[in-house]
Each structure stands twice: as structure tokens, then as C-alpha cells.
Amino acid sequence: MTGDILLKLQLSLGAISNGMAVYPINFYDDVSSFFKEIELAVEITLDKDPNTIFLPELSLFVQCYSLADFEIAKKHSDPETWQRDYLQLISGTAEFIRIWEDIWFKHTSWIKQYFSYRKRKNTSIFARDLRGVNISKEIADHFLEKEHLLGKVQAKRYIGLVVPPHRQFRNITSDYFIGDQKLVGVAAFAKPMLMKEPGLEGQLSGELIRFCSILGTRIVGGLSKVIQYYHKEEKVNNIMTYIDLEWNRGEGYQSIGFQEVQLTKPILYTLNDLGERVICQTWEEASTCTAGNKKLRIYFSEN
User: Structure pTM?
Assistant: First the structure.
């Protein structure tokens, strides 16, 4: 994190410690100004607090949540109420994304690219033009660091979606290659585990930790292709995954057979001297948090 970013976070935290109920310098204004720069109409919403704007062209609400806002909210809430209120907030038909102040300053470039591509409309790639291959951690790390908001992840198996030679005529573009094949998507899976959960004892369960395509692209049928490839390789009885509720409702996963099995509690964080999130245990010491995750699982009738 650059010195400027850290300074902005420190200024925000300073405002909190001095009891000043003000929004941090350049956060909400930075976000709304950026939307105007890429010519997205911005509407202020008064019924969604704090600092939520609506992008009618994308049918999307974007809530800019500052560290100062969170300090104020904690005094009138607890983790369970906090999560319940957020679920109510996103219960409408329009899409909803929450951007935290620290995430904006740390990942500004990625977030701006994400919305710029959405403004221009994502390019569709069809899974029938791709094939699944096992890839190395090094290749996966390089891809995920550029294309996913949270970057690389520790995993046991990495699967890539590539354009095979006989499909190159599709003119699918990518800066990533495995030999002469273009890499357009990456999935990361944890080591399969034997389950102890009542009713599922002894079943072999896989975990999808991360799946993403190149920014600005949508792989139609890509998730199904990755799941099928992994299932064939590992012979698991089921696969589970977690959905970040602040960026995704998991509807794409549920449309291919994933079922919701649990809503996890919010994860609490403090920020270290570099502005990085560090898990903490109590609501009182938390500087930021998540809205929790939706735990999903897909079951296979036979292997």
C-alpha cells in the first residue's frame, strides 16, 4: 500500500478517534466522481444509508462504507443485527455491491476496471469453445493477482479454462498462455476432505475456493465446465463454496445446482500499519468486517 493510501486511512481513523462523525477524505467523492468520469448516471438514494448511490444503467446499487461509518454503526448494533440489516438491504431485485473504504484504497485500480468493463458490457465467451486443464500454482497466482479482487489463494488443485488450437478461430483474446493455448479462466480447489457432518459422514467433499475469468469477460457455462472437470478428476461426492455477500448473491451457482446450506457470521478485522485486514475476535475492536458468506454445496448422485 502506498504512503498516500495509508495516510488517507489514518486520517479516517483519526476522525473516528476525535469523535468526528465525518466521511473520510476523498472516499465517497472519489467513487461517485469515477462513475461520472466513465459516463454512468449517478442517483443518490436517501432510503439506503450510508452513502449509497444507484447506477440505473446497470440496475445496481453501490454502497460506499467508510471506517468512520462503521465505528458509528457498531455503537447501535451487534454482528447478528448488522448482518440481518444488510440482508434486508440487498433483498430487492436490483444488484447490490458494498465497497469498503480500505478495499477501495487498496484495490482502486481493479475496482475501476471492473466497473469500466461493466459500463462497456462484458464480452461473452462460451464454455463449448474451451477445455479444462490442470495448471500450476505459479500460472494460477499470476492470473488471479491480476483478475480477481482478492488475488491469489493457497489451494491444492488449480484448473484453467483454455482455448484449444481447434477453437482459435473464435478470436478470443487473452494475455495469458499455456503453450499455444489462451488461458481465460482459473479455478482453485482445496484438498478434498472426508465429511463428519451428520447425514453426510464419510462422504468426500471438495471445496471451490476461487473462480474467475478475465476482467471484462463472462464465460457462459464456465462454472459448470470447471465443476464437471474437477468432479471427474477427484470423484468427490459433493463440492462446497462460499459466496461473498457484499459482491455476489450466488444466483449463478444456484442456477447450476448449488444449494444454500448455511449463512456464516460476519468476519471481523482490524487494520495493521499497512492498512491490511487482520482477523480479530471481538466486535468492539473491529475496524471493519464482512457481511458474512453464503455457504453453498452441490451434490453428485454417483461417481
Answer: 0.88
